[in-house]
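> call design_seq(struct)
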């Protein structure tokens, strides 16, 4: 499966092989980051992103095919991100995918970018469905029950900002570059967050929702008032712990809820080294899953609840096309292909198919 990803500021192409029993191998994964194009503006400029995708998609795709060492004849399909994201960029990759599909008479699979993140852990390990997923990225923060492509239920979501957005905005207030998450993580290494008392949102609430806007506002104000590098490092550490804490507290609730509903069907984690599958499994994915403190905090919550824990390899946490190719391949195996006039969708909820099928499910 050839995968194409152009929904934000990465132009990416990848070839992934999926065996009939569901084992994925990444044959190539090429990512061209536009960070330098946007750095001067402190964030992604949609028009610049779309133009850059137009310039890069051809070469990036050619490199992905060359590195995979296969010709177009060896492909079974083309998967392209069709949303959600910046619509100008999405249209570039989706149109390019349609052109390849038409020229080579291949099925087109229009992939939801979030579904790509949702399956991304399967690029590094033969993870079996179902699992509980925490999807934490630049634009989303959701807890999902994942039974397979096109079969997910959202248990909770942020009521305001995404965790990655909080990282980026607070990092900007601290004078760090874009994207802010990795820079803030680095600064936090030399900090001690205990001298800051940041707001804690939604504590003890019975749902699985998130909120980061209070933290974002409070920390941004404190950031501007910092006078020394040490104070800035201390604040970065406090912010990272606060985000980690909220992610783990909300996940704790979802893990308990998930275990309660599925306990009869799920086994306890197997000893290390044994194949993963049909057990209590907690997966974290998306750009923020690259954060080491957050990974270890979530791993501890999983262990406390008797769940195995898995995160994608670092390279597949932030945006890439391998996850799009894999979601496309899994869809093709289920016979879920798209029409050649599939539309680019700036907004596209992940559990839409389920929501449409079940009017009682919102
Ligand atoms: P979405 O997937 O919601 O459409 P996106 O594609 O822009 O948004 P991703 O590429 O998955 O998001 O992730 C980017 C986000 O991850 C940014 O907000 C970035 O700051 C954050 N991020 C990346 N690395 C780290 C890190 N080490 N620590 C914290 N945050 C990080
Ligand atoms: Mg990006
Ligand atoms: Fe993403």
């Amino acid at each position: 499966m050839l995968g194409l990803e152009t929904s934000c500021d990465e132009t990416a192409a990848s070839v992934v092989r999926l065996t009939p029993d569901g084992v994925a191998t990444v044959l190539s994964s090429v990512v061209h980051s536009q960070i330098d194009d946007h750095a001067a503006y402190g964030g992604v400029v949609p028009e610049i992103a779309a133009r850059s995708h137009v310039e890069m998609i051809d070469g990036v795709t050619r490199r992905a095919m060359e590195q995979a060492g296969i010709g177009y004849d060896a492909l079974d399909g083309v998967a392209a991100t069709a949303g959600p994201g910046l619509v100008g960029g999405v249209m570039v990759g989706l149109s390019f995918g349609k052109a390849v599909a038409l020229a080579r008479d291949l099925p087109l699979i229009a992939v939801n970018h979030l579904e790509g993140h949702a399956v991304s852990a399967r690029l590094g390990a033969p993870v079996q469905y179902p699992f509980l997923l925490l999807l934490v990225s630049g634009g989303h923060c959701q807890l999902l029950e994942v039974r397979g492509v096109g079969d997910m239920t959202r248990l909770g979501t942020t009521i305001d900002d995404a965790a990655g957005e909080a990282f980026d905005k607070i990092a900007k207030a601290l004078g760090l570059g874009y994207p802010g998450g990795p820079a803030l993580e680095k600064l936090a290494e030399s900090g001690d967050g205990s001298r800051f008392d940041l707001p804690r949102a939604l504590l003890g609430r019975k749902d699985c929702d998130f909120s980061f806007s209070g933290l974002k506002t409070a920390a941004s104000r404190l950031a501007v008032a910092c006078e020394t590098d040490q104070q800035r490092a201390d604040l970065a550490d406090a912010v990272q712990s606060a985000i980690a804490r909220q992610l783990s507290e909300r996940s704790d609730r979802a893990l308990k809820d998930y275990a309660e509903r599925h306990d009869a069907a799920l086994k306890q984690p197997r000893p290390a080294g044994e194949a993963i599958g049909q057990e209590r499994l907690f997966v974290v994915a998306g750009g923020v899953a690259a954060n080491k403190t957050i990974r270890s905090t979530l791993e501890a919550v999983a262990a406390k609840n008797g769940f195995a824990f898995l995160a994608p390899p670092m390279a597949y946490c932030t945006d890439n096309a391998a996850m799009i190719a894999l979601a496309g391949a899994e869809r093709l195996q289920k016979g879920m292909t798209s029409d050649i006039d599939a539309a680019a969708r700036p907004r596209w909820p992940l559990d839409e198919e389920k929501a449409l099928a079940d009017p009682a499910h919102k």
